[in-house]
Amino acid sequence: MRHRYFVVLCVGGALALSGCTGKSDEEVERAVQDVISSDESSLNDIMLTVADPDEAVAYFKRAAAEQPDRIDLKRNLARSLIRARHSAEAVTVWAKVVDDPDATNDDRIDYADALIRAGKWKEAEKTLDSVPPTIETFKRYKLEAMVADSNKEWGRSDSFYETAVGLTTKPAGVLNNWGYSKLSRGDYSAAERLFVDAIVYDPNLFTAKNNLILARGAQRNYQMPVVQMSQVERAQLLYTLALSAVKQGDVAIGKGLLEEAIDTHPQHFEAAVRSLRALDPRTVN
Predict the structure, then answer these.
(1) What is the DSSP string of the chain?
(2) What value does the mean pLDDT of the chain take?
(3) What is the residue extent of each domain of the chain?
(4) Going by CATH, does the domain composed of 136-219 fall within 1.25.40.10?
């Protein structure tokens, strides 16, 4: 309700100003519409960033239903659905957006992103192919790399990842994706370097830390890496490393790492306890 009061106050101010300066009715109407438009834009930004994701979806569904000809409201609905992790529904809305005569290449890239999230790789590839090669954005190259990964086109994948990294000041996420691509190919040392780079850019990216442990474990390197981590994170990473050791056949090392994980965790670490009990029922009561 507060934003409605804001509009009322601003409208009142605009009307008062017109009385003082002799503005025409048309000028006053334009000023009022500018205020309303600005207020709506601010509210939309809030809904797309800090508002509860499901509340944002409900808000934009209402707005798009009330004004079905507005492509910007359809875009915001699709984005809010992605934020709320409703990928399949987002695909449906993005399809409507890209069918609009006013659709942009950015819309097609966002549609491809939604298709990938929904597991529709071939459709995503076809959509990206419809975007002119002159459109060189970080998101476009990141998605191209992911599609190349899905096709096991490793040379194209590496090229796209490298280009994407060069187009952003926050490459941690794409470095992590690139590292996971290397990990899936069995290139563990290259994967390890990429995960370390990702952590340097974002020390809070736990996914990259966990993937780093997987890459080291695959090389039978069971030493914990020197990276920033909380006590809980250390326990979880020790657990991952323990499972990697067991998978490699190094069961005794795995048991030791599980015991360390249990001792490190500030609370009861049920998953580690169960795993240790499965390896040696006598070890944990």
Answers:
(1) -HHHHHHHHHHHHHHHHHHHHT--HHHHHHHHHHHHHHHHHHHHHHHHHTS-HHHHHHHHHHHHHHSTT-HHHHHHHHHHHHHTT-HHHHHHHHHHHHHSTT--HHHHHHHHHHHHHTT-HHHHHHHHHTS-TT---HHHHHHHHHHHHHTT-HHHHHHHHHHHHTT-S--HHHHHHHHHHHHHHT-HHHHHHHHHHHHHH-TT-HHHHHHHHHHHHHTT--SPP-----HHHHHHHHHHHHHHHHHTT-HHHHHHHHHHHHHHSSS--HHHHHHHHHH-TTT--
(2) 88
(3) 47-120, 136-219, 229-284
(4) yes
Tell me if 47-120 shares its fold with 136-219: yes
Q: What is the pLDDT of residues 215-257, one digit of tens each?
A: 999 999 999 999 999 999 999 999 999 999 999 999 999 999 9
Categorize the per-residue pLDDT at 2 as very low, low, confident or very high, splitting at 50, 70 and 90.
very low
Q: Which CATH class is domain 47-120?
A: mainly alpha
183-205 per-position pLDDT tens digit: 999 999 999 999 999 999 999 99
Provide the residue count of the chain: 285
Give the global pTM.
Answer: 0.81
| pLDDT band at 9; cut points 50, 70, 90 | very low
